[in-house]
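ERR on first pass: missing label on line 2. Operator R.T. fixed the label and resubmitted. Corrected input:
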Amino acid sequence: MMLRNAAGRRAVATAATALSLALALSACSGTTKDSSDKESTKAGATAKADPGAALKKGLKLAFLPKQINNPYEKIVDDAGIEAAKEYGGTGKEVGPSDASASSQVSYINTLIQQRQDAILIAANDPNAVCGPLKQAMKKNIKVVAYDSDTAKECRQLFINQASSEEIGRSLVQHLGEQIGYKGKIAILSATQNATNQNTWIEFMKDELKLPKYKDMKLVKVAYGDDADQKSFQQTQGLMQAYPDLKGIISPTTVGIAAAARYLSDSSYKGKVVLNGLGTPNQMRKYVKDDTVEQFSLWNPQELGYLGSYAAASLASGRITGAEGEKFKAGKLGEYTIGKDGEVILGKPTVFDKKNIDTFDF
Amino acid sequence: MAMAPETDKAAPAAPRGSVRTRSSLRGLALRWDTAVGALLVAVVVVGLGTTDGFGSGDNLAFAFNDIAEVALIALPMTLLVVAGQVDLSVASMLGLGSALTGALWDAGWAFETIVPVVLLVGVAGGLLNGWLVTKVGLPSLAVTIGTLALYRGLASVALGSDAVTDFPRTYADWAVDTTTVPGTFLTYPVLLFVVLAVITAIVLHATGLGRSLFAIGAQEEAAYFAGIRVKRIKLLLFVATGLFSAFAGIVFTLRYGSARADNGLGFEMLVIASVLLGGIDFDGGKGTLFGAVAGVLLIGVLKNLLTLNDIANEVQVIVTGLLLVASVLTPRVIAAVVERRHRRAAGARP
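pass 2 clean. output:
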């Protein structure tokens, strides 16, 4: 630094002295990651469940999405609020307008003051919301995470949309049926180190080892980085390299939409089968113009519905959140709580020409 | 904090209108901060009367702790704006402080070492801002828009998109809103703010340094020729905002138990809005610390009250925005009206 005036020099000198002093001091002792006390209190699961109890009337549920006005989460929350009406409760959606780590915290405090019976949260940051959620549970407010989990000790249940295994295997199963279990296939993924994508791809590869896929060959995994243009170019590249390609699986909403756009305008339309994970609104026109026969995604309405029933079951004392407990979720039937309070919604929903117009997200 | 008269003494002979106009302007500035104080009291009374849970100890502890970082940064920011400067890089420095805390903790450093190192980084950031303003002679708005991006960028380099979370309970407990000073609803960050606010008020309203700030803000050149060490004082002020912002980064990290590079995104606007709402003139030279503190608390309490009543976030943003526009506009509109009346009165005389 080029500080020529006395004040600047003095400040730097002071800073340097303080730094060396601090380093000297801390060399002796201090609280480090390894020495610090690890907190390991497990919340909930202490009370006894009464599976026969009726769902309480007049339960107050609050949905706290990652951010308000997010169309996907609005569908989840609205379905949950609708479900509450079925068992005589009420629901509402509140939340911040930005999805930053800390923005949900004020809302949790508010919901505690308003004495809600249950909070359902899609966490922006698994830990930033932890303190207030623990406080809520201390005041006997039930906490259910959905869509995006909090740290395990900060909620009683986590409603997971679908298991990674289910997603990976079912995409291969669907594509296999579509191409008659024969021919070259490729995968168009997002980024090379996306955890969820890579987990799904591992399960796809594992599924492909089964004998019935012996005539199907995975020739390439391409990465479109979840950028529309790059995904489009990667699809182009795949078709140049493998003109006899039979199918593409794109387990990313950006990738599948870009791939469909390329195929719909090319000579490969109708010859190459495209499947993967997409949203109905993005994919509607490609389903209608026969570029894509089907694709899948979990059903956000069912996710909200299940979350709503799970929260009501907790608040009515039917379940406590312990592994192995069972509860009924209205029209969706019975669910069992898995390890670490996880409840899996089920198989992804398959969207095709017949049902796509009933979804709007 | 009845230190308002100091403002009057400090205002130097700014060549603005007649003597009478100026005295009424000063009167208005004075009345504005008391008005914000009164509005704060009114909002609290309305809250207590209408909203369940508003007056509970839990909620009050939360409401004030929720703006602890904004309040801490608002203290040096008040001094800076009084001196006619602004620092937009404060929230980025908070983010850098948070990211560094996380990265160093993850690397196995002792927390007792991390704190002074992070504070020093804050000082260094402040020095850079101050150096660019005083030595290179760039306007503070331009400099700190640049360092706003720079410090946030460095925060991302330090920690990437990760979050570091496993901070020691012994320290985290000092920042959370469930730990209060025995017998009160004051949390420790809020208590610290109260102490620092008193010190800042004394510095601003009862010392020569404070008087110099008003002088620099009112007219820098005149202050310089009056023998005030303008550059050194400005440098000091930027170091103070840097230091407090880095410290706020540590508080933020412990309070949420989550160190991230994007922590406190957009906080600079909240800090500056609170300060302006409290009647600190953006052109410098006017205002009281009482007003600034009242502004910070008003924004915090209002946010809490609106959220408790399920008022949507968008409406909250609009309410804060309107308050801010009103706070900047009202004194000017009244001043213009007063001046016109004076001119007319002067013109009426033959």
